[in-house]
């Protein structure tokens, strides 16, 4: 683990949240360091999205502390963004709603997330998977210290999901930003994460992906040991990759990366 | 051309130029009924102005803003749906306004004038108010444009990106209140919302960017004012409603023209 991970971007200490008399979260400790990818997993209703909203400062914690590094720039990618048809707006313009940027910058971030061709399209005409990439581009435009991604692979097919997580890992490598990822896609998440936090109103278990996938609490939440192992162990036997549209792309220069990922925990 | 017609056109077009761009936001934010509710309460503001002996425009702005804030607070509770709440407030504040006006002693108020507008009776003093108030509203809208657009598209995202959502919302409500006070004399409180949303909705078909839609809305609103005043003089019809009929006719014409439903952004 690179030493940068010790530089905290955001930390939560004993955070609790009560909404409308219902206890949503209690005693949650969570931290994301520089260059670290932390993945938040948990069953439906575990409070994942609420935890993210507390971390972002969108709702206040009922108890505990949330500390953000001074001057922390956050790039946020919400679960779903639907722009009403009545608002005429292109993808390029949509990007700049988060802050001014030159056309070149807009094109650069769109190229980086693989959707440069959408630049002049109306936002309403892009597909769900494309929209996720547009949102990622908008977050990148802010040159964030911390990326917060809520279900970034939602509505994307399995091949495309692996692509999305690879993209996120690449972005982390290039920008050195911390990443907090909320996801259902257990096996894919395991591939990209430095640390996994398993949440069910409180933190059930946390640690390296390989460790968490064998933790009894994790197994209890996500089913029978055999099933869960089948999901959690990352056994990559793909010999090719897919781009956004599901087309096979050549895999040259990826050999070393694949080998590392292929190492079973 | 007679002076009163020139004053009517100047006042009407000035109002349309402000109501159009603001109306675009009302349409984007799905706040048509919200705006309508605020407009309905304007009569209560008028009564209050007479009662306190101060400027009616100021009391209308103050009352509409206060009601807007009250509405936002009430909408946070979950017991009553938003449209029920708006319906209750719209009609009870209008009725309360009419009842209060009846209580005012020694004042004769042209109720029809306030409800449906009396643009042909616009005075020089009214014009000054319309220009000053309208210009102030436009400047405020220009200042709020970027953050307001960002939070219209996605409020949480805008908030994370540093938009002071509460202040911008409040600013937007003050803007609606000012436009109501400015437009009251022209189309009347019952038809103000029409002047905001019909030109904006019409402009959608022709626009490829938010700014185009806002500017076109102002232009189409001005056309409706010209058409409405002309029609009113030709056929001796009430002017405020004639303007709204003209706006609706423009809407129908633009949407009936065959072609792609919405122009694709380029």
Query: Which regions of chain B have little confidence, pLDDT < 50, spanning 5+ residues?
Result: none
Terminus-to-terminus distance of chain A = 16 Å
Helix and strand pattern of chain A: EEEHEEHHHEHEHEEHHHEEH
Q: Could you tell me the CATH topology label of chain B.
A: ABC transporter involved in vitamin B12 uptake, BtuC
Output the number of helix runs of chain B: 12
Strand order of the largest sheet of chain A: 5-6-7-3-8-9
Q: What's the gist of this structure?
A:
The complex is a heterodimer of chains A (265) and B (266). Chain A is of the alpha/beta class and 265 residues long.
Task: Report on this structure.
- The complex is a heterodimer of chains A (265) and B (266).
- Chain A has ten helices and eleven strands.
- Chain A is of the alpha/beta class and 265 residues long.
- Chain A has two domains: 156 residues, P-loop containing nucleotide triphosphate hydrolases (Rossmann fold, 3-Layer(aba) Sandwich); 64 residues, no CATH class.
- Chain A is globular and about 50 Å long.
- The C terminus of chain A is likely disordered.
- Chain B is built from twelve helices and no strands.
- The mean pLDDT of chain B is 90.
- In chain B, helix 1 runs parallel beside helix 7, helix 3 packs parallel to helix 5 and helix 4 crosses helix 9.
- Chain B is 79% helix and 0% strand.
- Chains A and B meet through loops of A and helix 7, helix 8 and helix 11 of B.
